[in-house]
Design goal:
The protein contains 10 helices and 14 strands. It has 335 residues and is of the alpha/beta class. Helix 5 links the parallel strand 5 and strand 6. The protein starts with a strand and ends in a 20-residue tail after the last helix.
Length: 335
């Protein structure tokens, strides 16, 4: 089968492309390269430079290639940036999705896997977040992802769309050095930068209602996210689906624990400064992954040490020194 991967030259998208190729699919990558890189696109994939909001470009892709389904990852994803530019986020993440759905309908393409986010959830209660947990996103970014899910659901009800939305938690790591996270927004690259430069990392809040006062997140390896996409692609191909799944590990790590793991892996000290908690940041975000496991058999394979080691290796800073598999105190085992 042939799959269009929007945003396939990005950090997560490049992992997904390789997973689909390994599963035997033909892959067409559409990316505007605003944050992606051609170096991440393997020769076996066909690349088209295109914006997700460009209906003409999407129509041309569907006309030129026999596309059987779409994995939609293209979009903007910074919570902080979305607070400053909500219109830009809605234009790309919501209007772009609407344009894609229109192009899919015109080309009679009825299979879709959508990149959603744990940012759709509310602040939570300190317990794992299930797909049925309250949806109360605290940022424009989270609201665009929730709007995307709702738009897909409405289009499916009016047509024949088979779809799955994957709500990612915090992605960290790299399946190979060339696929490392080159952005500056995610926490782990910022920790590395502090370790390498000595410029203190700002930790946003140390009085959260968590075990050490810093925010707790569910960090998941991009190879595991990619395998979740492969499972979702298989599911929407076998029959009509309308499912939403969490994609995480079920185990939370605090900011301090991630820093400690980085120091163990790199042998470097990470200087920090404590800043004010950001209003759009929930104190605790951990996935309940029971539903996706029960329905598809998917489960994550990589722990926090592997995530940090592989991400550090991708920086090319120094060789990774093997370390014992340090496991942060797990509040919740993977369900």
């Amino acid at each position: 089968m042939s799959w269009l991967v929007t945003g396939g030259a990005g950090y997560i998208g490049a992992h997904v492309v390789r997973s689909l190729l390994a599963a035997g699919h033909d892959v067409v990558v559409a990316d505007d390269l605003s944050t992606g890189s051609l170096l991440r696109v393997p020769p076996a994939a066909h690349f088209v430079r295109a914006r997700i909001t460009d209906r003409w470009a999407l129509d041309a892709i569907f006309a030129a290639h026999r596309i059987d389904g779409v994995v939609h990852l293209a979009g903007r994803k910074s919570v902080a940036e979305s607070l400053a530019d909500p219109l830009g986020y809605h234009r790309v993440n919501v209007t772009g999705l609407a344009v894609l759905l229109e192009a899919m309908a015109a080309a009679a393409v009825t299979r879709l896997v959508f990149s959603s986010s744990a940012a759709v959830y509310g602040p939570g209660s300190g317990q794992p977040l299930a797909e049925s947990s309250p949806l109360a996103p605290a940022s424009p970014y989270g609201r665009t992802k929730l709007a995307g899910e709702q738009l897909i659901r409405d289009c499916a009800a009016a047509g024949s769309l088979s779809w799955i939305a994957l709500r990612y938690f915090n992605v960290a790591g790299a399946a190979e050095p060339a696929l490392g996270d080159q952005g500056g927004e995610n926490l782990l690259p910022r920790i590395f930068r502090a370790a390498l430069t000595g410029d203190p990392l700002t930790v946003y809040g140390d009085r959260h209602p968590t075990r050490d006062g810093t925010a707790v997140r569910d960090y998941v390896h991009p190879a595991d996210i990619a395998s979740a996409h492969a499972v979702a692609v298989s599911a929407v191909t076998r029959g009509r689906r309308a499912d939403v799944y969490n994609a995480g590990t079920g185990t939370g790590s605090s900011v301090r624990e991630l820093i400690a793991m980085t120091e163990a892996v790199t042998g470097l000290s990470v200087p920090i400064r404590i800043g004010a908690a950001r209003p759009a940041d929930p104190p605790h975000t951990v996935a309940d992954v029971g539903l996706i496991r029960a329905r598809t058999g998917w489960r994550p394979r990589h722990g926090l040490a592997e995530q940090v080691e592989s991400a550090w290796a991708a920086t090319g800073a120094t060789p990774v020194a093997p370390v014992a598999r340090l496991t942060p105190v797990a509040e919740f085992a993977a369900l």
